[in-house]
């Protein structure tokens, strides 16, 4: 990695259903003429558009932590831990070796949790019975804690092992009633309104936090985040996911994510990458939403032109 800035270190992974990725798949429909290929792409687009990790939730969390130099954000992380699937809407890591799993599926709703453990989602006028998000969060945090306690995600200093502590929160709409009579006292702070997330995590003044907590270098936490990204299992077929690798917003993701052609895998020089960025920033017809070298770009243009004739 040749260079860093705060925004690059902040957001390590965007959600799978980014607009640019959906656009790239729609462009692939214009090139792939086989029925099987088109069917797979259509299914992938539909799956991305129905993804529960919403753009609103990711933007809200990015805004909260925009000025926090000691935090990393991974959106829409899907892992397989001990053979069990774990889906985390948002994962926050900080230099104090703290990890927060954020469930934002109910960020536009209120939750009503009865004394016998039943959970209802409410939009203000109607309610619907849903599977317990608290049980899911408890399971996900337990599995993630086991993973982060392994040697590859822990550190040793003076023969003492130090691993991440894992916590979780469920975000709800602040204007909709959330009743929690069925929760134990220790669970009352798990379900919170979306405006309380930042204050819930930052309970202590920043100066006191830095004096009393041993912190790690941000680049060390960055490596742990990259290791989690390598374990990510996308919600669509891996070959389609890799082919439509989007060019991130400049200074928002790690430079290493777009230094290769998504078609042939060759290494791109700085000039080629800048040209790809310019193609993303201009209204091309059709736009090229993938990172491509000169040879692959010419082939794509020829295919698109042939299909349009």
What key attributes describe this structure?
11 helices; disordered N terminus; six-stranded mixed sheet; alpha/beta; 309 residues; three-stranded antiparallel sheet; globular; 37% helix
Q: Which whole number gives the mean pLDDT?
A: 76
Q: What is the straight-line distance between the termini?
A: 43 Å
Counting DSSP H or I runs of 4 or more residues, the number of helices is: 11
Strand content: 15-25%
Identify the strand order in the major beta sheet. Answer: 1-2-3-4-10-11
Shape: globular
Q: Could you list the spans in which at least 5 consecutive residues all have pLDDT below 50?
A: 1-9, 247-257, 281-287, 304-309
What is the number of strand segments? 11
| H-E string | HEHHHEEEEEEHEEEEHHHHHH
Helix-strand makeup class: alpha/beta
Largest sheet: 6 strands, mixed
Which bin fits the share of residues in helices?
A: 25-40%
Radius of gyration (CA) equals: 21 Å
Word description of this protein:
This protein is an alpha/beta fold and 309 residues long. Helices cover 37% and strands 19% of the residues. Strand 8 and strand 9 form a beta hairpin. It is globular and about 60 Å long.
Would you spell out the secondary-structure blueprint of this structure?
Blueprint: H1 6-10, E1 11-13, H2 19-29, H3 35-49, H4 55-64, E2 71-81, E3 84-94, E4 98-103, E5 110-113, E6 119-122, E7 127-130, H5 133-148, E8 155-157, E9 160-162, E10 165-172, E11 191-193, H6 197-201, H7 206-212, H8 218-230, H9 238-243, H10 270-281, H11 294-308
Helix pairs in contact: 2-3
């Amino acid at each position: 990695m040749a260079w860093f800035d705060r925004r690059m270190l902040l957001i390590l992974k965007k959600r799978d259903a980014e607009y640019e990725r959906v656009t790239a798949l729609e462009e692939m429909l214009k090139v792939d003429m086989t029925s099987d290929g088109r069917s797979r792409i259509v299914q992938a687009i539909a799956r991305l558009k129905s993804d529960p990790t919403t753009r609103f939730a990711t933007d809200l969390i990015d805004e909260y932590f925009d000025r926090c130099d000691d935090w990393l954000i991974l959106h829409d992380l899907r892992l397989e831990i001990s053979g069990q699937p774990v889906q985390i809407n948002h994962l926050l890591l900080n230099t104090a070796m703290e990890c927060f799993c954020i469930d934002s599926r109910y960020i536009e709703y209120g939750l009503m949790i009865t004394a016998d453990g039943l959970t209802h989602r409410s939009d203000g006028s109607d309610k619907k019975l849903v599977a317990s998000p608290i049980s899911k969060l408890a399971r996900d945090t337990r599995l993630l804690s086991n993973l982060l306690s392994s040697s590859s995600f822990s550190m040793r200093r003076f023969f003492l092992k130090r691993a991440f502590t894992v916590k979780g929160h469920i975000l709800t709409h602040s204007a909709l009633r959330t009743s929690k009579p069925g929760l134990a006292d220790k669970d009352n702070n798990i379900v919170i309104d979306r405006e309380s997330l930042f204050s819930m995590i930052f309970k202590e003044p920043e100066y006191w936090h830095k004096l009393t907590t041993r912190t790690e270098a941000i680049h060390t936490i960055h490596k742990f985040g990259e290791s989690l990204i390598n374990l990510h299992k996308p919600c669509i077929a891996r070959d389609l996911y890799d082919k439509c690798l989007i060019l991130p917003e400049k200074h928002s993701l790690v430079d290493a994510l777009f230094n290769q052609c998504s078609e042939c895998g060759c290494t791109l020089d700085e000039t080629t990458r800048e040209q790809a960025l310019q193609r993303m920033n201009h209204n091309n017809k059709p736009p090229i939403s993938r990172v491509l070298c000169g040879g692959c770009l010419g082939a794509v243009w020829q295919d698109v032109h042939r299909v349009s004739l």
